[in-house]
Write a sequence for this structure.
């Protein structure tokens, strides 16, 4: 069976490369011609551990190819993964324009019985829409080719995407078709030595499972951030609370780290889309509304803390910022809390020097050019160079090199020894004993 993966973002490219790595013949399709050219040359367009080595190896061995033409892929493929973006539309719903466009193209071009897999995160009912679009395109051609549209949502984490894909906790296959179940079961058996990690269910159930998973994780984060803000007011150190509750196996330690909010391409848009789905059903998603609201507030917490310490007008102040990516291990800056912090600092008159181990190219591409041209924002290659003459360091993303920094060097280079720790990376007592003024999230000693 030959596989086409349409869309080569964080999900599509990892999916294509990992299937090729297991010996499958894969052709990746993307409408971005410049990106396709780079990938054909073996260049990896995103930062993801393990991926840069996999591309040239699989291209050389003839298992992985790239094209801008879905029609070309359709000449030889029998499985089509749709892995294009589903960014939020203005009303918060998932924008399915790209998914629908790919479905139409598949219907216009398939040559043989095909399994069409929705891997993009799509609202419940999208499988039916994709099926109708493919059928309509086939009818227009006057062809009747057998096909199944199934749901196979992706659960990989950026920053560990290859590892997650290679060793999935679970693979969700949403279809009632025995044919599709057999084909997909065989395909994924290479990744799940134990086939009990493959969970079969209905297509709509699978679509909902993806949203429920992300909404649950976002809820855990927002819940903990709420407890952190309350802890600040009560003189409680939320880090002790986190240890205390995480040790309960019913709660666990995952996703209960207080911080400056969740970002990325998934949680914010998926919570919004689920809220939209609920409203369409005349259902009040009270918990999801609160999760989203709390996260928007949380992204402003560092700004409030900076304002409380330095005032509303930051003219003449200079800040160092560590961490631009929305989380460690990726160069992705979509919905990153760093953007909210930078907007506030620069909008209030400050200058900023920032560092990130991987997201600086992305920052140059995504942040307003005017910030760089006016000298309000500078990026530096070495983390300590960001600190020179800074009134404060603001830590936004918990990359490993920031975890145990050289505090002596920091003290020498900064103008004022002030740290705003948006990810509770440092021990307040230790930093204070070294002469730093320390503010974390929910550490019980500050507003
Ligand atoms: N990023 C993640 O961590 C993650 C995890 C799980 C699920 N998802 C879901 O997977 C989907 C893809 O996410 P992503 O982060 O990989 O997206 P992305 O924005 O990084 O990549 C999408 C790619 O699709 C291409 N594309 C768009 N329209 C196309 C078309 N008509 N034909 C061919 N190519 C087209 C774009 O050029 C781009 O390269 C989304 O629905 C997302 O919610 C993402």
């Amino acid at each position: 069976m030959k596989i086409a993966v349409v869309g080569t973002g964080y999900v599509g490219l990892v999916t294509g490369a990992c299937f090729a790595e297991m010996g499958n013949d894969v052709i990746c399709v993307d409408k971005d011609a410049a990106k396709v050219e780079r990938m054909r040359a073996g260049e990896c367009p995103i930062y993801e551990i393990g991926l840069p080595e996999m591309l040239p190896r699989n291209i050389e061995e003839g298992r992985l190819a790239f094209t801008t033409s879905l029609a070309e892929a359709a000449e030889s493929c029998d499985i089509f993964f749709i892995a294009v973006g589903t960014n939020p539309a203005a009303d918060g719903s998932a924008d399915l324009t790209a998914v629908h466009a790919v479905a139409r193209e598949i219907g216009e071009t398939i040559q043989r019985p095909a399994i069409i897999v929705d891997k993009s995160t799509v609202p419940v009912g999208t499988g039916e829409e994709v099926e109708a679009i493919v059928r309509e395109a086939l009818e227009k051609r006057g062809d009747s080719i057998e096909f199944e549209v199934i749901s196979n949502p992706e659960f990989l984490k950026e920053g560990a995407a290859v590892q997650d894909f290679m060793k999935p906790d679970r693979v969700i296959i949403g279809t009632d078709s025995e044919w599709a179940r057999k084909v997909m079961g065989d395909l994924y058996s290479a990744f799940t030595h134990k086939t009990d990690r493959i969970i079969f269910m209905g297509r709509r159930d699978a679509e909902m499972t993806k949203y429920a998973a992300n909404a649950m994780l976002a809820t855990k984060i927002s819940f903990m951030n709420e407890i952190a803000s309350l802890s600040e007011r009560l003189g409680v150190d939320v880090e002790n609370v986190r240890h205390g509750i995480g040790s309960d196996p019913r709660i666990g330690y995952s996703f209960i780290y207080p911080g400056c909010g969740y970002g990325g391409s998934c949680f914010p848009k998926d919570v919004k889309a689920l809220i939209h789905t609920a409203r369409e059903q005349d259902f009040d998603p009270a918990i999801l509304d609160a999760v989203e609201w709390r996260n928007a507030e949380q992204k402003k917490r560092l700004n409030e803390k900076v304002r409380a310490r330095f005032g509303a007008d930051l003219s003449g102040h200079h800040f160092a910022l560590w961490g631009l990516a929305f989380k460690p291990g990726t160069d992705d800056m979509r919905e990153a809390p760093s953007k909210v912090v930078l907007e506030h600092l620069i909008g209030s008159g400050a200058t900023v020097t920032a560092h990130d181990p991987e997201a600086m190219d992305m920052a140059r591409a995504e942040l307003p050019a005017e910030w760089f041209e006016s000298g309000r924002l500078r990026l530096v290659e070495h983390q300590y160079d960001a600190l020179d003459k800074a009134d404060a360091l603001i830590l936004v993303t918990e990359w490993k090199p920031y975890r145990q920094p050289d505090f002596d060097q920091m003290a020498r280079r900064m103008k004022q020894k002030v740290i705003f720790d948006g990810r509770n990376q440092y021990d307040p007592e230790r930093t204070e004993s070294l002469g730093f003024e320390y503010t974390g999230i929910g550490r019980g000693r500050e507003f």
